[in-house]
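Supplementary notes for students who missed Thursday's class. We covered one full example, reproduced here. Read the sequence, then the structure, then the short commentary at the end.
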Amino acid sequence: MAQESAQQAPIAPTTPARALLPLIVPALVVGVLASLLFLGVSAAAEQLQHVLWKNLPDALGIGRYSVLWMLVMLTATGIAVGLVVWKVPGHAGPDPATTGLEAAPLPPPVLPGLVLATALMLAGGPSLGPENPIIAVNVGLALWAGRRLAPRVPNGAWGALAESATIGALFGTPVAAALLISEALAARQTKGALWDNVFAPLAAAGAGAMTTTLVAHPTFDLHLPAFDRPGWGDLLAALVLAPLAALLGMTAVYLFPYAHGAFSRLRHPMLALPAGGVVLGLLAAVGGHLTLFKGLDEVGELAADPEGWSAGQFATMTLVKLAALVVAASCGFRGGRIFPSVFIGTAFGLFAHALVPAVDPALAVAAGVLGMLLAITRQGWVSLFTAAVLVASPAILALLCLASLPAWLLVTGRPQMQLRADGTPVH
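Structure (token representation):
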């Protein structure tokens, strides 16, 4: 019977090589340029961050991360980004609460303002990453240039190439992009074999990843103590921690529309964004400087000394960063939610390890990140991939796959951390 069913199953037609070959050069070009734009914005933001958080307070004789300076800088960042959203043509794109990783093409006049708002946000300290706006900028640029320079390439291909290239550049590997593409294709009606559909996007992601790797040498490995062969206790820990992290992430998801509604009532970016900056400054005063910025560098500082903080301190940083993510994403700052979620999941995992030292720190961090990302992003493969690369231990993969199942049951079918234009959550 099984053999008969297999014989009757339809086989997806494959695309001829001559149809795929013309896409290679556009994919490689988009990959390199998307990575260079990401690296350029990141480098500019890092330089500005150095000035704002080191040179300037040192010159004024103020503590770099004193409560006063954090409050001043985050409020000033809200004012600066508010001015961009208010005055710059295109208003830095649509309300970021309504956007996700898959970006709708934006007209070229909008893109400079979006780049400027993103760079100011990254330098100023709000708890958001660069992924959403950088993807949107690359998609807009790729479509605009592609229509003029390569009109024979379908318009829809440019967006897929730019998204894949940017994901590859952000993570320094095309694997993340391949997983994301595969997950997106599963929800669409596509023609041909899977690898025919991912061929050009994977080429773009590979070019973007290689460019980032050659220029910036990124790494996501937290260099936590090596995780050896798993035991029954490790399985139990993973099955408990990932769902708990997912539940914690869902609190942010459910609070998100209420926070967005509160800031929307201010009705002007020069009120909403500075108000958000003030709230973020107050949160930073409670959580400390590690709860600032997108969180990737700060995650490394946490993981470098897992025993360096108490369970209470890890819990405080977890909750403060979660609240900061909700505020930053709802008041109008342009940015993504993946990297702050990684910090939250890491701090939660280290809290669990500090509370129960028998829980392996690498496993705790991976399970915490997995559950948090599942709740915030709803990207199953990317969540698994990110959690796994942070600890760089093949032995942990089976545990993460099993732990993702109960965590996914808690988040699937529920509201997402993204709103429609009318302010209602996306399901």
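Commentary. The chain has a mean pLDDT of 89. Residues 24-60 form the longest helix (37 residues). If anything here is unclear, bring it to office hours.
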